[in-house]
Design a protein that fits this description.
endopeptidase fold (from Nostoc punctiforme); globular; alpha+beta; two-stranded antiparallel sheet; disordered N terminus
Length: 163
């Protein structure tokens, strides 16, 4: 069964503010009900401030947002992006709800320093850095770098989530 999320009006505008996107609505077909719940949680956090070590409810860092999004979906994730990368099953074809990892300023391809939650083709929700609220961003695919953040890989936490 696939979950479906539709963002309209102000929600879509908030998602794309400052990102150069001009969309009135975004539809995401999540691979599972748990993935849909994780995405829905992350969407509710859009606009909240970044805070190093933050796990909500008022502010998040990147791995804290991933942790709490998947906790809302019934899965238990590790705390940091490095631990999440090491503990979750890796996938080569990202689906909505998967986690996308980046080398980041303090990480390497084998120990990523940044993580986002995939919400659709080349779109993610992320808590990027101080001064940037939780937001929707684009990412490039490793096979076709296009100036966006290019990930080192993807994981699928859905297998560990409650149905």
């Amino acid at each position: 069964m696939k979950g479906k999320l539709v963002l309209l009006g102000a929600a879509a505008a908030a998602l794309y503010a400052g990102g150069g996107h001009n969309a009135a609505a975004v539809t995401t077909s999540a691979g599972s009900p748990a993935a849909a719940r994780a995405i829905a949680y992350a969407q509710q956090q859009i606009g909240k401030p970044y805070q190093w070590g933050g796990t909500g409810p008022d502010a998040f860092d990147c791995s804290g947002l991933a942790l709490m999004s998947w906790r809302a979906a019934g899965a238990s994730l590790e705390r940091t992006s490095q631990e999440q990368w090491a503990s979750e099953p890796h996938v080569s074809s990202p689906q909505p709800g998967d986690l996308v990892f980046f080398a980041g300023g303090d990480g390497t391809p084998t120990s990523p320093g940044h993580v986002g939650l995939v919400i659709g083709h080349d779109l993610m929700i992320e808590a990027y850095a101080t001064g940037y609220p939780v937001r929707v961003s684009t990412f490039g695919l490793p096979s076709s770098p296009d100036g966006d953040q290019v990930p080192v890989g993807f994981t699928d936490p859905a297998a560990r989530a409650a149905a």
